[in-house]
């Protein structure tokens, strides 16, 4: 009996957006209007690439970025929740599927000593170039019209589950914890026995309730959370059953 926990990262594990937090490193902690206005819907990764070039051009180095990123607060109750999952790893496989990047997530999880809680992290690959600039790439190419061009979380989840089945691992239940619009696609993939846990007051919760109103509700159960303690209470019930 094993459960799969799937976490988004920004506004779910951490209480901020890691990509917008990095702007604190910019001169006067803001971006020039031309750069800010250059974002086009569905092309966030390209936009962040330009932000990283701007930071590099202004002499912002890796250590300063790392110091800034590791000050991001975790969401309320999240430290307790991740501690609880870490103590019960024999029951829970745990992955992150995020539109952030490998460098930011790695820094934040390692600084708080939570990297061992997660079995895999699926996010946009990032690295520092030989000139000290942070570069970011698309996670994959896909054909899903609902998702941003660089990442379809449903496809990531499906491929992960297929790979696990090949290894002989199947899950009693999938618990999907997220907040954003790009979490809807994987939530719609979940089955009747699974559970979606959207963060209260965020886009995912609103989109799920719009679907229910238009009489095409998601198949899985839905449990809204505002503190990660709500998630921990649910997991404690699960492992008692």
Automatic annotation (TrEMBL):
InterPro entries, per database record:
HAD-like_sf, HAD_hydro_PyrdxlP_Pase-like, HAD_sf, Pase_PHOSPHO-typ
**Residues binding substrate:** 19, 99
The residues that the entry says bind Mg(2+) are 8, 10, 179
State a single Gene Ontology molecular function.
Answer: metal ion binding
Instruction: Name the coenzymes or cofactors required.
Output: Mg(2+)
Ordered alphabetically, the record's keywords are: Hydrolase, Magnesium, Metal-binding
Residues at the catalytic site: 8, 10
User: Pfam families recorded for this chain?
Assistant: Put_Phosphatase
Q: Which SUPFAM superfamilies match?
A: HAD-like
Name the NCBIfam families on file. Answer: DKMTPPase-SF, HAD-SF-IB
Tell me its family.
Belongs to the HAD-like hydrolase superfamily. PHOSPHO family.
| Name of the featured protein | PHOP2 phosphatase
Q: Which organism is it from?
A: Edolisoma coerulescens
